Amino acid sequence: MVLHPDVQTRVQEQIDSVLGPDEKPTYALKTKLPLVEAVLLECQRMYNVIPLSGAHRATENTKLGGYNIPK
């Protein structure tokens, strides 16, 4: 959002228009906040906080592109 302040402004406007000053967000309001949902999904896509693949390591000594990769 720091790199795209226009998106931050649009998200804030959407939140303000749907929730108002006193309402708290609920799961039921999710469909009324499509931009907020899109931004959250994009953040999860770009900066996954949970590693979905296992640790990457060589299972045996190998050579790749002239480089020795130890087990």
TrEMBL record:
Pfam families: p450. PANTHER family: CYTOCHROME P450 2D6-LIKE, CYTOCHROME P450 508A4-RELATED. GO terms for cellular component: cytoplasm. It comes from Diaphorina citri (Asian citrus psyllid). The lineage of its organism: Eukaryota, Metazoa, Ecdysozoa, Arthropoda, Hexapoda. Keywords: Iron, Metal-binding, Monooxygenase, Oxidoreductase. One of its GO terms (molecular function) is iron ion binding. It comes from the Eukaryota. InterPro entries: Cyt_P450, Cyt_P450_sf, Cytochrome_P450_fam2. This is Vitamin D 25-hydroxylase-like. Belongs to the cytochrome P450 family. GO terms for biological process: organic acid metabolic process; xenobiotic metabolic process.
